[in-house]
Every structure is written in C-alpha cells, then in structure tokens.
Design the sequence.
C-alpha cells in the first residue's frame, strides 16, 4: 500500500545526508541492486529520489515509472556532482506540459 514515504537511492556518500532529514536511504552499488531496490520501493513509497548516475544505469526502468502517477521518481545530483540529467528532465517535462521550453530556451 502506497503512503507518503520518501526514499533516496544512490551511493553511500550521496544518500547519507538524507538520513538526518528522516528520509529512508538505500545504497545501490551496481545496476542489479539499483533495479531491484527501485522495483521494491515503488510499491511502498510516493517519492523516490535517485542519484543521476544511478538513473543513467537503469534508465529503462526509470522511464517506465515516469509514465505513472506514483511513485514520483526524481533524479538528483550525486556527491560527485551533477551530470545535468535532472535539469534536462525538468526541461522536458515543462516543455511537454506547456508546449514550449520556457526555462532554458533550448540551451
């Protein structure tokens, strides 16, 4: 049963700080762990933040969840920095909703 719980999936260094905020954190060190963790959490969590590097590893599965209302799967930068994936996703979502890229003007 889905509730209002929030989770973060990523490498240990990237997700540890979220624990202090009361968010459930899950370490994923490889593609298999990331896939299995996301599938499991999708049944219990309303929002799942995933570091961008992990999202790139499991992009096909993340894309499937993007078509559903829940859970909201949101890419975030890792402790190593951003790949720009999260901002590209926001830009695509805004363009899809409004019909134009009002945020970045295709830059």
Sequence:
């Amino acid at each position: 049963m889905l509730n209002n719980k929030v989770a973060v999936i990523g490498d240990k260094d990237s997700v540890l700080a979220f624990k202090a905020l009361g968010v459930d954190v899950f370490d994923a060190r490889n593609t298999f762990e990331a896939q299995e963790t996301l599938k499991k959490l999708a049944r219990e969590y309303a929002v799942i933040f995933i570091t961008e590097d992990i999202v790139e590893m499991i992009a096909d599965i993340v894309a499937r969840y993007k078509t559903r209302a829940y859970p909201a799967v949101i890419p975030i930068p890792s402790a190593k920095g951003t790949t720009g994936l999260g901002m590209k996703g926001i830009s695509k979502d805004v363009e899809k909703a409004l019909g134009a890229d009002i945020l970045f003007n295709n830059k």
In short: The chain has a mean pLDDT of 80. The longest strand covers residues 6-10.
